[in-house]
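User: My collaborator sent over this chain with a note saying "see what the structure looks like." That's all I know about it. Can you take a look?
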Amino acid sequence: MNQSHLRNLSLAAGLAAVGGLAFFVGRLSVDEPAAAPAAERALASSAPARAPQRQLETQPGAPAPAQAGARVGPARVDDLVVAPPQQGQATLSAASIGWEGDENTPPPPVVLERVFGVVAAALENPEDAEAAQTARAATVILGAMLQQDSALLGEALRQLPTIEDTNQLVVLSTLLAYVGDPRVEASALQLAEQAALPQQRAAGLRVLDGLDAPQARAVALRALEREVGEPELRRLAIEALPPVRGSSPAEAGEVVAALTRTLERDETWQARQGAALRLAEWQRGPADLEPLLRHFQSDPSLEVRATCALALGVARARTPQIQRTLAEALGDERAPAAVREAAWSALGTLSPLPADVQAAFQAYAQQR
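Assistant: Without extra context I'll predict from the sequence alone. Here is the result:
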């Protein structure tokens, strides 16, 4: 699992612990389904399953809308894309659906067309649990094949910049993010910068997010500044920033400046939330964390305030100012419960605590 996945999963766990706040986790964590017979039939049939295509109605990473009843099927395409097995684990290959060594093995374009078809069918029938299971199994198989079949990978990369359907781009870019091939990184870098359509540039950034490529830093920063009218692209650009490891002070300073501008000026809470988390990772010292303190205290978004608290814990800057600012929230009964809980969680990681902060920490613990 790459650093991007670990970062998203670890903070998601923290946010879940403070009240189930929605967060911009880049990928769905679900158990990998076995390739159901329905999936094998749909993928291996002479004609692909089809349904009218539609654009995403919910931006990836946005909070799931409240629902009156339990939904059986997928709410959006993200819910259908299951990460392929990692190296060293059991993998699904073409042989698992009877294609390997078969004279009737579909050519790469047909493989992609069939997977897109079963995903479209599941999206058009969101209450159909079997259709959703079929689509998820299909994405597992496609992801494994992309890692093993050079011809299929080449066809996927050839098609990627030509696809205009948002759902198809989400499926393919999410799976390509797990493929450690230099061709994938080169294609993603070019797509993120040069593609004509915003959903295509988003696909390039989504791939870069999974690859954690150092070369993505400059591309992501340019996208963050360029995509003024595209809040989803700005969010993806923040996620596409690589881990801080191996960077120079000058490079870190450039990233910190861009993230601070986003946190201070961006109108969308999702971008501010993402900037807060990455700022904790790229910060060079307590001075870089001052925007997190300000937005913990006064950001209009509950999600951003809670994330800023947790990000201060992630940064592990044990300064009296940070510790006491977080402790003040514990005693403020007017503060939202989720913000107080996030502050308490962050203080737990910033121990040892001064005596007055420790007293506030213990008093809140008794009230929980």
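A starting point for your reply to your collaborator: The two ends are 34 Å apart (CA to CA).
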